[in-house]
Design goal:
109 residues, alpha/beta, 3 helices
Length: 109
């Protein structure tokens, strides 16, 4: 049985919708030598409650970069809304980008 992490250990956090995404992103980060912690937040039905749990984990206050990797299910707007909603009570902001939008790049340290 897979054990879930009990704390945040990196300043860069990626919340993923599934183990496959975690495996891929972990391998890519290791290949390029970037310190990133990827967490499996389950499928679309568990995603919101798991994000709420992650926000309460020890070490979350040290996170400087957070990304969410998931699909939009039925529509892009509902996918964005469903991803942002769990962060609001914790006071964490969420920036989004659709394909083609340019966001300022910030270096990973």
């Amino acid at each position: 049985m897979e054990q879930r992490p009990t704390s945040i250990t990196s300043r860069v956090l990626v919340l993923c919708e599934g183990r496959d995404e975690v495996g891929l992103l972990d391998a890519m980060a290791a290949h390029v030598g970037v310190d990133v912690q990827c967490l499996d937040c389950g499928g679309s039905r568990q995603f919101g409650s798991r994000i709420k749990a992650v926000v309460r984990m020890p070490g979350f206050s040290s996170v400087v970069s957070l990304a969410v990797v998931r699909d939009a299910e039925r529509s892009i707007p509902s996918g964005i809304t469903g991803t942002r909603r769990p962060f609001r009570p914790a006071g964490a902001g969420a920036r989004t980008s659709r394909s083609g939008d340019r966001l300022p790049r910030r270096p990973v340290r």
